């Protein structure tokens, strides 16, 4: 399999790979080589070694009472998935929280748009296709490959979500543009969201300095924002804002975020009330 650089995208310390039609072992060699180049050999070895012992890790978490966390006074089970190695990234807490709000939106039959194709990887197959997905890079059936800063539709949505994707806008691109995140969010709120709709999203800290400044400096109008911080692999806690400032992104064990914000725009309710 031949992996083109144009079809490669780094996301959250793990890698979404899109291959062309020629499939074979060469593609996996290329993909692994790219991970080593971007995250280092030690991180790559640790990452894939842990993958092999996922069942033992889950059992250990259960036996040591480390299988759950609390967010907005609600208890969640950490996400343990081979896809994206969730336990070692911010996905451990993002996926359960966003599954909660997404399932609620589906039950209420809201018109839903997801920015970045994330949640279908953690939902039962029967849910596939129940919401629209726009992702500039990932090629798959029913995914709209457009830039969210310019994306437009005749249909407007009353529930828009994005899981650790907005920090890549204008950053993981050939032509970097620090102002593109603001442009994208303006497009979402003004052109894609219904007047009574909400936009809920998460972003890791330490990955894109511009995104950090936008959240901490409130350069966009947030209805509410909550913060989660990791103290060790399966030990995430909700904390105050000052505790996540100056958070670093990536280390030998995780290669991802140690702090994440979950924010909502255009909501009359606090995040706690949306869960």
Summarize the structure.
The protein is α/β, with parallel strands linked by helices and 275 residues long.
Features:
single chain; 275 residues; alpha/beta; Rossmann fold; eight-stranded mixed sheet; two-stranded antiparallel sheet; 7 helices; 12 strands; 29% helix; globular; disordered N terminus
How would you describe what is shown here?
- The chain is an alpha/beta fold.
- It has a single domain (53-274), classed as Rossmann fold (3-Layer(aba) Sandwich), CATH 3.40.50.
- The protein has helices at 25-39, 41-52, 54-63, 91-107, 180-192, 209-216, 271-274, and strands spanning 8-11, 14-17, 68-71, 74-77, 112-115, 132-134, 143-144, 157-163, 193-204, 224-232, 235-239, 259-265.
- The strands form three sheets. An eight-stranded mixed sheet has the order 7-6-5-8-9-12-10-11, sandwiched between helices.
- Mean pLDDT is 80; it is low at 1-32.
- The longest helix is centred in the middle third of the chain and has 17 residues, at 91-107.
- The termini are far apart.
- It contains seven helices and twelve strands.
Q: What do the pLDDT scores average to?
A: 80
Low-confidence stretches: 1-32
CATH secondary-structure class:
Alpha Beta
Record field, number of beta strands: 12
What is the radius of gyration?
A: 18 Å
Question: What general outline do the C-alpha atoms trace?
Answer: globular
Using the 3D structure, state the CATH architecture.
3-Layer(aba) Sandwich
Q: Helical amount among residues, as a percent range?
A: 25-40%
Structural class: alpha/beta
Strand content: 15-25%
Sketch the topology as an H/E string, one letter per element. EEHHHEEHEEEEHEHEEEH
């Amino acid at each position: 399999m031949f992996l083109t650089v144009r079809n490669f995208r780094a996301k959250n310390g793990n890698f979404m790979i899109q291959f062309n039609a020629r499939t074979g072992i060469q593609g996996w060699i290329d993909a692994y080589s790219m991970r080593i180049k971007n995250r280092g050999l030690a991180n790559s070895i640790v990452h894939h070694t842990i993958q092999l012992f996922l069942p033992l890790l889950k059992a250990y978490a259960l036996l040591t009472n480390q299988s759950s966390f609390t967010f907005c006074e609600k208890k969640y089970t950490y996400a343990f998935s081979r896809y994206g190695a969730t336990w070692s990234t911010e996905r451990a807490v993002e996926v359960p929280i966003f599954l909660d709000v997404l399932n609620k939106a589906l039950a209420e039959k809201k018109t839903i748009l997801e920015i970045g194709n994330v949640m279908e990887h953690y939902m039962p197959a029967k849910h596939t296709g129940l919401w629209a997905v726009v992702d500039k890079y990932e090629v798959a059936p029913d995914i709209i490959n457009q830039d969210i800063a310019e994306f437009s539709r005749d249909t407007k949505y009353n529930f828009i979500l994005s899981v650790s994707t907005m920090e890549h806008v204008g950053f993981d691109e050939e032509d970097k543009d620090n102002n593109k995140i603001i442009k994208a969010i303006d497009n979402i709120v003004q052109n894609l969201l219904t007047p009574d709709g909400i936009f809920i999203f998460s972003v890791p800290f330490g990955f894109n300095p511009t995104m950090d400044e936008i959240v901490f400096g409130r350069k966009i109008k947030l209805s509410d924002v909550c913060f989660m911080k990791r103290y060790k692999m399966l030990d995430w806690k909700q904390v105050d804002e000052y505790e996540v400032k100056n958070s670093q992104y990536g280390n030998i064990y995780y290669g991802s975020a140690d702090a994440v914000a979950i924010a909502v725009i255009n909501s009359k309710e606090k995040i706690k009330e949306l869960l």
